[in-house]
Amino acid sequence: MQGYIYPNEFELQWGLLIVLYPYITGLVAGAFILASLERVFNVREVQPTYRLALLTALAFLLVAPLPLQAHLGHPERSYEIFMTPNKRSAMAMFGFVYAWYLTVVLLLEIWFDYRRDFVRWARESRGIRRWLYYGLTLGATDVSPRAVAFDESAGRWITVIGIPSAFLLHGYVGFIFGSIKANPWWSSVLMPVVFLFSAMVSGIALVLFLYMLTTMFRWRKIDMTCLEKLAQFLFYALVVDFSLEALDFIHRLYEAEESIQILAQMVENRLFLSLIVLQLLFGTLIPLGLLAVFSPGLRKGGFVRASAELKQLVFLTSAVLIQIGIFSIRWNVVIGGQLFSKSLRGLTVYKAQLLGIEGIGVTLALLALPFVILWVLVKIMPPWSDEPAETGSNAPEQPATA
Amino acid sequence: MSDAGMDRRAFVGDLVAACLAAGGPVLLGVVRMAEAQGTDPGAYDASEHYYGIGIDVAKCIGCARCVAACKIENDVPLEPTYFNTWIERYVLRTNGDVEVESPNGGLDGFPPIRREGEVLRTFFVPKLCNHCANPPCVQVCPVGATFITRDGVVLVDDSYCIGCRYCIQACPYGARYMHPEKHVADKCTFCYHRLVKGLVPACVEVCPTNARVFGEVEKRVTPLARFLRFNDIQVLKPNLNTQPKAYYANLDGEVR
């Protein structure tokens, strides 16, 4: 502790679990927006990641409310958010935004996309799997061209609704923080927009990472056209995200409100590692440089002629660095917003516990859980589209057109 | 008790008659106060009141009797990180430096000013929930567990609060905390259990210098109305438009 903080501020209210919440919802929104690229904007190159992105979004969305639930003082009363929501509360809308996104957008879109396969798998398999797939068809086993065409068009419309919904989901999470006028570190109209673009960055990076990993573990060849397109979009999203963060930063500095001194102290002391080193240097500048040089973002084929293997390594490294960076962003927002006193006269510290419900152990478990769910989902509903052509298409020099 | 209540009611009736006869509007105000403080809890009518508190910084001697009384009256956890009200000591230096402290909310007294340098001014500032008319804590509560009563007091329903702590984040004054045993948000209630009995909050009752003046904001002839009329009044963080009902007299600009 340093300077003066109000006596009630000694205890930090939101810890690691609440850092996790915007991180996870960001991945959901980002993965979904990536999926919609193929569906709505006809970016054919990223087609191999379409289903993987949807399942990833679902796996993470299922976990998203868990850190919130675990963090409540009275988790058994959480249903009251649905029963008697305070209409003026940003947080009260969580249940509805979440339910809308889960049921209307994700589950429906996945169901329409997979229905034909459910029918096929039900016919091909035996025993319990057969019943599982029949159950998943919800009794709609018509796979006539007309029915399939309907699936296709329904899926497209749901995606069209899904894009603003994904924006809503994560922009809304940003609003939860950005609308707190008592907290000068949070209170910013840019917060929902920054959250949104950082969500896209993290979602694309995650799907890129998962696509490479799953393809390697299935001993398939990575589709370089797809990978480069992903890297290209990742680069663009990162550029916008970085510009917005920079705008926010410059705006704060230039306005230099009452809070500027304590916030500057906080960034220099308490947040140096997580903001300057992890978020800015490792999470943004290095990946930005790597992607600028190696991805087709600025120049077709990148600025450096590199082998497919090197590019894969570079993109994978960038994706991992970006994940670290985005997690740091969430940390810096949530924890940073509580490290200075609202008296603007002092700084406090946050000590993460190892054990306990708010501890590092639970956080790691909650971070691992979506991957377990994704593994189960992938086992039940394989998202791969490259089964027939084992070799895959490996054409790194192919012109990329959006 | 009921006899006393009857007596008081009879007395009030007499006063009303006397006032009407005398036609004294000033006395009428006194009668309303007397009515408001009827001892029968069933007779309490929240719509008759609108409470606020006045704090005269110049009168506070930093004894923290108020902090002790509050902790006892409201079963506030005794640890030094939970306070419904606390006292801050400001030390203003001639070179412009400002030092603020509130060791254990002021409960154990304040240590001598040790640091070198010339002191320009020192003063104590009692802090508590501002019972804002436009409270951000009430706005953000997802389930409506924290609310404003008709008489203008911001309360938490501890049987309903889900413990999400959003209200604690939204309060600009650091007036809320998470109760370590009840696992719900907690704060100053203006001693609502005392108000409905016609008593003033415990902190006001024990203040030896009358630095705290509790009462009706909107009525004309009340101690608080007098306080508001005869002092230059400021509120904390007015730029946030929370419309606090903790009114400070003789407040220094350094106080946040």
Give your account of this protein's structure.
The complex is a heterodimer of chains A (402) and B (256). Chain A is an all-alpha fold and 402 residues long. Chain A has 14 helices and two strands. Chain A has a single domain, classed as Up-down Bundle (Formate dehydrogenase/DMSO reductase fold), CATH 1.20.1630.10. Chain A is globular and about 70 Å long. Among the domains of chain B are: 42 residues; 51 residues, 2-Layer Sandwich (Alpha-Beta Plaits), CATH 3.30.70.20. Chain B contains eight helices and eleven strands. Chain B has a four-stranded mixed β-sheet, covered by helices on one side. Chain B has a three-stranded antiparallel β-sheet with strand order 3-2-4, with helices on one face. In chain B, helix 1 runs antiparallel to helix 2. The N terminus of chain B is likely disordered.
Count of alpha and pi helical runs of chain A: 14
Q: Supply the CATH superfamily name of chain A.
A: Formate dehydrogenase/DMSO reductase domain
Largest sheet of chain A: 2 strands, antiparallel
- Indicate the proportion of strand residues of chain B: 15-25%
CATH topology of the domain at 136-186 in chain B: Alpha-Beta Plaits
- Architecture of chain A in CATH? Up-down Bundle
Tell me which CATH architecture of the domain at 136-186 in chain B applies here.
2-Layer Sandwich
The backbone outline of chain A, from C-alpha atoms, is: globular
The overall pLDDT average of chain A reads 92
Write down the domain tally of chain A: 1
Strand order of the largest sheet of chain B: 9-1-11-10
Gross morphology of chain B: globular
Distance between the termini of chain B: 44 Å
State the name of the first-level CATH class of chain A: Mainly Alpha
The order of strands across the largest sheet of chain A is 1-2
> Can you tell me the CATH class of the domain at 136-186 in chain B?
Alpha Beta
Question: How would you spell out the order of helices and strands of chain B?
Answer: HHEHEEEHEEHEEHHEHEE
Largest interface: A-B, 42 and 45 residues
* Multimeric state: heterodimer
Helix tally of chain B equals 8
Mind summarizing the main beta sheet of chain B?
Answer: 4 strands, mixed
